[in-house]
């Protein structure tokens, strides 16, 4: 995962936490739900990026194994 992706996801998570807290303070259930949804979206993006990185690493390992000459 690139640094830009991590920062963007962290920003979305932070904004979601702020929305959730503001909703809790003001009694605005819609804002609380929006905040939780933003946090869930950020977590899903992180998980997807981690999975993409794992697949890319596995592909690189396979390439290395097949390109080595014994």
UniProtKB/TrEMBL annotation:
One Pfam family from the record: CsbD
Region entry Disordered, spans: 1-30
Residue ranges annotated for the CsbD-like domain, each copy included: 5-55
Top-level taxon of origin: Bacteria
Gene3D superfamilies the UniProt entry points to: YjbJ (1.10.1470.10)
Family: Belongs to the UPF0337 (CsbD) family.
Name of the protein in its database record: CsbD family protein
Organism: Serinibacter arcticus
